[in-house]
Amino acid sequence: MLVEDERMLAEILSDTLGDRDFEVETAFDGLEAVEQVRKHTFDVIVTDVMMPQMDGFTLAKRLRSEGVTTPILFLTARSATEDVVRGFEVGGNDFLRKPFAIDELIVRVRALVGRVARSGQVETHFSIGKIDFSVAEKRLQCGDQQVPLSAREAAVLLRLCRRMGETVDASGLLRELWGDDNFFNLRSLNVYISRLRRHLALDPSVEIASERGVGYRLQVRA
């Protein structure tokens, strides 16, 4: 029953996206998806986490190992933080939890397409002052100095980098990475922000500023 339900969801999404002027190729299991990606060039890959033959996380890891940089959006009924972190670790770019509205899916897909169009590629590196942030390697480098990042540190910093100079809403950040914006998760986020500030001290001109009651802003002082 689960397999049939997922197949039906894939068909519905394919038809709906097609009606919105997207060109869509559909695969009904992970192995078929790998073959589709090898044969075609896609702007975005939308994959369920739970699939026959090969799950979505394994699919993403396989594609990244083959040099595929296409943005990957995971659809999942899972809500555990560990699953979200794992998804980013294997190369995912966004998560959408079931059940979801089709309009939200389309907004997420267009955002990923727009990101690629603006940059010409999926983000692999960010320059933060004199610091190079390698997203894939989860590493900061400034001259000869290197600092490894944990998966959660890298995920938080990535979102700050994407909106460099802008205040990133703490509540939205918590819901995306922790699944809930409760008080205890906010304390955890504050711990990771403190750690990132210490790491970013590689370049004294870089700072993460706090906007009380709102969020955080990554900026480079002139």
Please specify the SSE layout and strand pairing.
Layout: H1 2-19, H2 30-39, E1 45-48, H3 56-65, E2 72-76, H4 81-89, E3 94-97, H5 102-119, E4 125-128, E5 131-134, E6 139-142, E7 145-148, H6 151-162, E8 167-169, H7 170-177, H8 183-200, E9 206-211, E10 215-220
Parallel strand pairs: 1-2, 2-3
Antiparallel strand pairs: 4-5, 5-6, 6-7, 8-10, 9-10
Note down, in words, how this protein is organized:
The chain has a 4-stranded antiparallel sheet, with no helix packed on it. It has 8 helices and 10 strands. 25% of the residues are buried. It is 46% helix and 20% strand. The protein has helices at 2-19, 30-39, 56-65, 81-89, 102-119, 151-162, 170-177, 183-200, and strands at residues 45-48, 72-76, 94-97, 125-128, 131-134, 139-142, 145-148, 167-169, 206-211, 215-220. The protein folds into 2 domains: 2-119, Rossmann fold, CATH 3.40.50.2300; 125-220, Arc Repressor Mutant, subunit A, CATH 1.10.10.10. It is an alpha+beta fold. α2 (30-39) runs parallel beside α3 and α6 crosses α8.
Protein traits:
Rossmann fold, Arc Repressor Mutant, subunit A, 222 residues, 2 domains, 8 helices, 10 strands
Count of discrete domains: 2
Report the count of strand segments: 10
Spell out the CATH superfamily of the largest domain. Response regulator
Secondary structural class: alpha+beta
Unreliable runs = none
CA gyration radius, whole angstroms: 18 Å
Share of helical residues: 40-55%
> Count of helical segments?
8
Major beta sheet, strand line-up: 4-5-6-7
Largest sheet: 4 strands, antiparallel
Strand proportion, as a percent range, falls in 15-25%
Element string (H = helix, E = strand) = HHEHEHEHEEEEHEHHEE
What is the 3D shape?
A: globular
CATH topology of the largest domain: Rossmann fold
